[in-house]
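Subject: for your reference before the review

Hello V.,

The reviewers asked for a structural picture of the protein, and I figured it would be easier to keep everything in one thread rather than splitting it across files. Below is the amino acid sequence we used in the manuscript, unchanged from the supplementary table.
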Amino acid sequence: MLIMGGCPRPVRWLSMVEVSRGKFTWFFQRIGAVPLDRRRADPRAVRQVVQLLKQGEVVGIYPEGRIQQGADSVTQGGKMNESLFRTAAMAGVPVIPCAVAGGEDFGQWTGWLPLGRTRWAVVFGAPLVASEHLGADVRTALVSLYQTAADHVNRGPFLSS
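And here is what came back from the structure prediction:
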């Protein structure tokens, strides 16, 4: 939600089919999420994402394949699912790296209180064109962007850039 709040354009998300169905189906439909069945190859979801990208839509995809924190995050050396970048290459669009810092505070209900002054930052990087080094380029950008976002969180109450 912080990325959607910090992005000047609407963001469609590639989401796990498990969370986009059930009691929150209405929410995922409302934000235009594309459900992906990770238990098997899902060409329908890939085609839908490629079509959205070719139409100029912004599609958010976590490089780990899901939200990760701490040592499991790409920014801390965690694994990255580089096959996700193939969709950008198929659509002929760049990858825009993005990092969020401070969002973990919203895991507590007090983080949402107005006077709680939860500090957070969303930072977007320069577009990266598909190449044989795209995975390494994305990892390098995310590490740098996360450090920038964390520096902003430590300096001021709210930021989105």
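For the response letter, the relevant points are probably these. The mean pLDDT is 84. Residues 2-160 form one domain.

Happy to draft the paragraph if you're swamped.

O.
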